[in-house]
Every structure is written in C-alpha cells, then in structure tokens.
Amino acid sequence: MKKYAYRNIITIDGPAGSGKSTVAKILARDLDMKYLDTGAMYRAITLIALENNIELEDEKSILAAASGVKLEIDQVASSENSYTKVFINDRDVAESIRSPEVGSAVSIVSRLPGIRRYLVSMQRKIAGEGNAILEGRDTGSVVYPDAVLKIFLTASISERVKRRKLQLEEKNQEVKLGHIKEEIKKRDFIDSNRKDSPLVIPGDGIKLDTSDMPIFEVVNKIKQLYYDRTKTKI
Ligand code: DC
C-alpha cells in the first residue's frame, strides 16, 4: 500500500480567480489545519522590491533586501472574505500587497529562481511536518509533491473575471471588466510559461473546474477526497 510522506498536507493550486483562497481558508478552518497563502509571500517580496526602488529583475538585490526584514504571515485562516495578514517589520501590509502596482509586478519577481528557492524553503519550514493547507501556483508540483492530496482548481476566464470584479468592489475599488480580463490573462500567461515552477497540474493532482460549482460544493468534494485518501491509502 502506498504510504504518503506528508499525510496531512493538502495543496491547492490554480490561476487567479479560481477560488483557491476562499476554499483553502474554509478547509483549514473546518479541518483544523494551518493555512499558508504562498501568493501573499510572493506579493510581500514584490512590495519590498518596489519600496526599495529595486529593478524587478535584480534578484540579488531583492534577496538582500528581503533577508534584511522580518517577514511574518498569518497561518490561521480568518474570515474567507478577508486578506491574509502579512507583516513586514511589524508593519501591516495586507492591503498594500494587493495594490494594482504589486499585482502587475508580482509575476515578474516570482519568475526569479533565487526568489522561488528562498520562499519555497520558508514555506516548507512553516508547513513543517504537516497539518497544513498550502495555496498557490506550485505548492503541489514543487513545494510538497508528496502531499496526500493535490488539488488544481480552475474556472472559465469569464467567471474568474466576474469573481475578481466582485472582490475589488467589496474593497470599494472600481475597475472595468475589460481591464481585469487583460490583467488576468497577462498573469496567467506569465505564470504558466515561466521556466522555473510554472503553473501546472501536478502529476497525480485532481483538477476541479469551479465555474458552475458553489463554494460549499467544492469544499465538500475536497473534504471527501481527503477523507477517502487518508482512510484508504495510509
Ligand atoms: O495567488 P496570488 O494572486 O496572490 O499570487 C500572486 C502571484 O504570485 C501570482 O501571479 C504568481 C505568484 N505565485 C507564484 O509564482 N507561486 C506561488 N506558489 C504563489 C504565487
């Protein structure tokens, strides 16, 4: 019988707007697991680069600036509608890492192999031996390929644009649908085509299209898969 190395790790990857964050937070709360929003980490590093006026391709300087600060990320899933809390030297940056400036720069910074190595090692340290849900683009393919359950969430582009618009409206940000669509398509392209750790469905990952699935249904489906796996394969 196959024995998984990381029995209590669930990874949830997928493109922007696929429902990862909402689903991962509910699961972490219901299953009493740690929650790790890896995208928030790439955003925080990007904010550090922007605030220090560092060239977005200058990996060495970004790494030097990043290792000189205290970066903290909340590992408890609070409300599924609120952003993950992130602190840089005790400063709350949860809102600033979601700014349009960071949004368009993050795909460039997250392409850099040294930045990825740095954050992947931090992610493994935080998730440790298990009991964690990781959410991102490469958490099943690179960070924990031995996770007991690897989910790849996706949804149609029109549905993802609609969700992103709603999210922005909740934060009182008004952005045109066409603009959101362009941003999402650009980010999808860069994330899926970069050399190092592109967005892919992990080998034995399970793909779920959430276009027509309400959140509770997605959550229940993943819970069922998790229970089946841990019962039958360990
Ligand atoms: O999930 P998000 O939109 O907050 O992620 C922001 C960006 O970070 C995303 O466009 C690509 C990058 N990212 C990544 O390269 N690897 C991850 N594991 C998570 C995010």
Provide a quick synopsis of the model.
This protein is 49% helix and 16% strand.
Residue fraction in strands:
15-25%
The helix/strand class is: alpha/beta
Share of helical residues: 40-55%
Molecular shape:
globular
By CATH reckoning, the class would read Alpha Beta
Mean pLDDT, all residues: 90
The ligands bound in this entry are:
2'-deoxycytidine-5'-monophosphate
Quick tags:
8 strands; 234 residues; Rossmann fold; globular; binds 2'-deoxycytidine-5'-monophosphate; three-stranded antiparallel beta sheet; alpha/beta; 9 helices
What does this structure look like?
- The protein has 234 residues and is α/β, with parallel strands linked by helices.
- The protein has a single domain, classed as P-loop containing nucleotide triphosphate hydrolases (Rossmann fold, 3-Layer(aba) Sandwich).
- Helices cover 49% and strands 16% of the residues.
- The chain has helices spanning 20-31, 38-51, 59-67, 100-109, 113-127, 139-143, 157-170, 177-193, 215-232; strands at 6-13, 34-37, 71-73, 86-88, 91-92, 132-136, 147-154, 206-209.
- It has a 5-stranded parallel beta sheet with strand order 2-6-1-7-8, sandwiched between helices. It has a 3-stranded antiparallel beta sheet with strand order 3-4-5, with helices on one face.
- Helix 1 (20-31) packs across helix 9, helix 2 crosses helix 5 (113-127) and helix 7 crosses helix 8.
- The radius of gyration is 17 Å and the shape is globular.
- The relative contact order is 0.22.
- The mean pLDDT is 90.
- 2'-deoxycytidine-5'-monophosphate binds next to helix 2, helix 4 and helix 8.
